[in-house]
Batch of 3 targets.
Target 1
Amino acid sequence: MDTIVRAIPLEDFLLDILTSSGVQGLFDLKSYLGDSAFAELRDPACFRLVQPAHHGIRWPHDQEISSDTILWDLQQRGDTDRAPDTASDLDEYQSSALPTELAPTPLHRGKGKDVETT
C-alpha cells in the first residue's frame, strides 16, 4: 500500500503530497471543507497542522483522508509526477517546494551517512 510520506500545506487549501512510491502532486482540500467533519480546517492555522499518518493524512482533531482517496484524486486530476530519483535532485526539489524559511538544510550524502552541511 502506498503511504503519504510528505504533506506540505500551501496557499488556498492545497497540499503538496509525496507518496512512498515517489508519486507527487497537489491535493486540493477545498471540496472537503463543506463537510462538517472538516469545517475546522477552514481556519488556515488549523489546516497547516496536517501530518502524514499511517494510512493517509490527518489533523490533530482526528480529521483524516486516506492515501487511497488522495491518490485517486491526484490521478483523476492528472496532477501527478514522480519524485526526483537522485539525492541531489531530491535536495533541490525539497528546497524549491518549500518557502525559504522552511527549506531543509542541505545534506551531504556519503558512505551511508547523511551529514548536515553549513
Target 2
Amino acid sequence: MQNRVEAESICLNPPLHELAAKSELNYHIHLSLDIKMEVIHFALRSIEWNKKRQIVIVCSQKDKDAYVGLLNSLGLVAKVKHESRWVWLKGADLAGAPSISFAHCPLGNEEALAGYCLHNLRFIASGDYLTTKALLVLKAGLTNKDNSLVTFGERNPDPKITEHWIKAIGAESKSLIDKLEALIGILRKGKYEFADEKVCQEYLEEHFTNLGLRFEREYRLSDGRSIIDFFFPNSGIGLEVKASKAWNKMGVYRQCERYCLNPEVTGLILATAKPQGLPEKIEGKPTRFYYLGENGL
C-alpha cells in the first residue's frame, strides 16, 4: 500500500491542483483537468477553502448540461434556476448568489463574459472552447480580491503565463522535490540484476509496471537526439541507468547535463552500479543519485 501511495505521488499532480484551489492570488494557470468530474472536484475544493467563493464555469451548452448532471448525481444540488445556468449547492445561502454559474461566449459575442466584477469570483474555462478574444475579456476581469482564471483541456490558450503563476502559488519546487524523493523511495523497494544494463532496465520496468506508474522507456526527448532510459511524463522526471561498472564519470555527467538542458525534463535521477556523485542541481534542475548496489539480487 505504501508503494502505491508513493507511486501515485509521481503519477499525479495533486499539489498543484490543491494549491491552486486554495490560493487567493489573482492568477491564471492551465491545469490538466482531463475529465468533467475533475473539473467539478476542483470547483468544489475551491469553495471548500472559501465558502464565499462563486465559481463561473465557461463552456459550451452541451458541456454545461453534463456538469449540472454530475452535480445532481453527487447529491449536492439544492436549487437550480435560469435554464440550469445557476446552481446553488446544499448549505449555500439560497437567497444569495449561486454557488456555481455557467457562462457561454458565442463567437462574435465574447463581451458577454464581461461584467463579473465581484470579490471571490473564480473562472474555470475550457481552453478548447475559448477564443483569443474571450480569454482577454476574462483576464481583464481579474481585478478584485480572490479572482482567478483556471483554463483546462488539451489546448492551453496562453502557455506563457502558466509557468509564472505555478511558481507564484508555490507549487513547482515543493511538488517536484517530493516526487524525486518518492521515486528514490520506490527504487529502494525493488530488486535488480545490474551485471547487464538492459537486464537491469527490464527489472526496473517490471517494478514500475507492477506499481502502476505511468512512464516511457527509452524515451526520445524533444531535441531529437537524446534518449533517456525512463521518463515520467506527468512530472517530467527522467531516470538514467548505468548498470555496468565501467564508464567515464565526466562522460556520464555531460550526458546528464544534456538531459537537463532539455525543456521536457524538470528533474533527473541517475541510478548506477557504482557510486557517482551529482550536484544538487544541473542547469537549475534538481538532480538525485541512487546507488543500485543497495538492491542487488
Target 3
Amino acid sequence: MNTVVKKYIETWNILDGAERRAAIDALFTENVEYADPNVHITGRDALDAYIAQTQAQIPGGVFALASEVSSHHDLGRFTWQVGPAGGAPFAVGYDFIAVEDGRVRRLYGFFS
C-alpha cells in the first residue's frame, strides 16, 4: 500500500500531460472512482482532466505525503499536503483509498 500511495502522490506532481497519463494508466483501474469536496468522477480520463485542472489552479504547488499510510485489507488512509516547494503548505487533506489487484479502484478525499 505504501508504494501505491507514493505513486499516487507523485502523479499529482507530474506536469507533462503524456507522462501523467502514463502514470494514471499504470496506477488506476480503468473505472477508478474519485471523490473530494469539489468533484465525484469516474474513469481515468476524468481523473487526468481533474488533476490537470487542479495543477493549473495552484501553479507551483507540490503535493507531498504528510503522514504514514495506515492500511488493511487493500484499504488505506493517509494525510497529504500541498504548497510551494520548500515552503509551508497552503492546503492539507486526507484520503481513503481502495486498491484492487494492485491498482487504485476508489479514492475519497477530504480537505482540512
